[in-house]
Amino acid sequence: MIALSHRITQLSESETLAMARKSRELKAQGFDVINLSLGEPDFFTPTYIKEAAKTAIDENYSFYTPVNGYLELRQAICNKLKRDNQLEFAPDQIVVTTGAKQALINALLCLVNPGEEVIVAAPYWVSYRDMVKLAEGEAVYVKAGIESDFKVTPEQLEAAITPKTRMFMFSSPCNPTGSVYTRQELKALAEVFERHPQVYILSDEIYEHINFSGKHESIAQFESVRERVIIINGVSKGFAMTGWRVGYLAAHIDIAKACTKLQGQFTSGTNSIAQRATIAAMDADPANTYLMLEKFRERRDLVLDLMKDIPGMITNIPEGAFYVFPNVKAYFGKTDGETVVKDAPDLCMYLLNKAQVALVPGDAFGDPECIRFSYATSNDLLVEAVARIKKALAELK
Ligand code: PMP
Ligand code: GLU
Q1: In terms of domains, do 265 and 389 share one?
Q2: Ligand 2 atom closest to residue 39's alpha carbon, by position in its atom list
Q3: Cα atoms in the 13 Å half-sphere on the side-chain side of 157
Q4: N vs C: which end of the chain shows fewer Cβ within 10 Å?
């Protein structure tokens, strides 16, 4: 028996990746599984980005890059933040990372001391929980339900802050609920933070370009908290570049320097070719991403419409990202005569075995009454998946 560290034994496997793995295994055994577990656009990376990568190979961008990323890329990110978000950043305040995941863990490791509290808006993205553990922080979950469109209120936030609170983390547009905080809602949260200057705000904006409600709003726009906001973003979702592994953070220079020091001991600069390709993504008119946005909107409407016919599935109307997160507790305690469905993980296993559709239980995201569908797949597959789910659920009595 290998004696692994406590650090790793207390960490869970990412449930999104675990479901995706199970679904791949079943597919390899010949089962016709429809995988709605993984949040990954099904589009190919746009041609202008691929061309930039090919040019970078030919131009021999094969050496180590600066740890925080090529200056041209950090400048392109600053230009993007100004153009799209009206935010002024200098290249020294940007750190290019291996996916938004690394940007998140960098910020946690650089700002949170063991035992300090990190308030996590729940439902939350699966990896937040384990990232806080890795940083040896104490996660404090503030739960928002469907009645508030899964958004945390200023009152809830105020009540959760203690002298030990070091950070608040959330995503908008949100994975898994698709909720998008309005400018007014963010302003109200910022006003709470004004009273608590020890709290940093980790604002995950990776779904910025997948927002059906109009303009993207960042909490960093409020001057009173601006210095304490760490913006997390990247190209995985908006530019269909999940496998390229490029993310970034934008923050106060001291935070950016600390993250660069950490990264210098850990991974160094991210992949050189992917960084050059990302310059093209940042420089391009954001309208280039609207075609994908329209497709996602069409799919969201389709899935919501199909789900209306499934009794006992209650959902909000997601305004962004590409997930639906219905409450399914009406099915808990039911059986098809063979299997008893006690909870959301049981329901997901039942649907995987019976309907061959892979979903993720809400437990992974801090709401055990829900399950998550990713609708980042074709209309045909979505229609087929929901029909199979409906049939399997109808057998539960
Ligand atoms: N934040 C959220 C909310 C996500 O859904 C994801 C999943 N991709 C990430 C961060 C990590 O993104 P990346 O692929 O850039 O590491
Ligand atoms: N963010 C995606 C999801 O939530 C990708 C999976 C992952 O990185 O965990 O499904």
Answers
A1: no
A2: 10
A3: 25
A4: N
Residue 1 lies in a domain: no
**267 belongs to a structural domain:** yes
Q: How far apart are the first and last CA of the chain?
A: 44
Take atom 12 of ligand 1 and give the residue whose Cα is closest.
100
- The per-residue pLDDT for range 56-98, each reduced to its tens digit, is 999 999 999 999 999 999 999 999 999 999 999 999 999 999 9
CATH number of domain containing 131: 3.40.640.10
> How many other C-beta atoms can be found within 10 angstroms of the C-beta atom of residue 302?
15
Q: How far is the CA of 236 from the centre of ligand 1 (A)?
A: 7
- Its pTM stands at 0.96
315 lines ligand 1 (CB under 6 A): no
My answer on whether 182 and 318 are in the same domain is: no
Q: Are residues 13 and 85 in the same domain?
A: no
Question: Is any atom of ligand 1 closer than 6 Å to the C-beta of 204?
Answer: yes
> Does residue 99 have its Cβ closer than 6 Å to ligand 1?
yes
CA pair distance 286, 313, nearest whole angstrom: 35
Out of 237, 257, 286, pick the residue that ends a domain. 286
Residue 242's identity, in one-letter code, is T
Report which ligand 2 atom has the smallest distance to the Cα of 242: 5
Residues 180 and 268 reside in one and the same domain: yes
101 CA to middle of ligand 1, Å? 6
Q: How far is the CA of 339 from the centre of ligand 1 (A)?
A: 34
> Residues lining ligand 2, judged by CB closer than 6 Å?
14, 16-17, 38-40, 126-127, 175
Instruction: Calculate how far, in angstroms, residue 173's C-alpha sits from the geometric centre of ligand 1.
Output: 12
359 residue type, one letter: L
Beta bridge partners of 370: 327
Ligand 1 contact, 247 CB (< 6 A): yes
Give the pLDDT confidence of 219-274 residue by residue, as tens digits. Answer: 999 999 999 999 999 999 999 999 999 999 999 999 999 999 999 999 999 999 99
CB atoms within 10 A of CB 207: 25
> End of a domain among 286, 304, 330?
286
